[in-house]
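Reagents: none. Just compute today. L-rhamnose mutarotase.
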Amino acid sequence: MQRACFLLKVRPERLAEYRERHRDVWPDMREALTSTGWHNYSLFLRDDGLLVGYLETDDFAAAKKAMAETEVNARWQAEMAPFFEDLDGRPDEGMRALDEVFHLD
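Predicted 3D structure written out:
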């Protein structure tokens, strides 16, 4: 199982709404994430807008590609794009992946 972590930056003036949107993620979006291999997926948000995403998957590149091909993801990304800073395109295309340097089993 591959562990993946990524960063994005939420606009400070949109933090409250971003949190609210994630309290009730669409059921079809949740199903798409699961069916395309996104497991144990979490988002962490710092007060300055730093967003950290973490997930476990068999193949992160394949999971991102499969998710990008879903209709619900296109709708979700279009709605979420205005929440982020420093993006050219969709949020799922702007994720900055981090290298894992340590893991305690």
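The chain is about 35% helix and 25% strand.
Action item: order primers for follow-up constructs.
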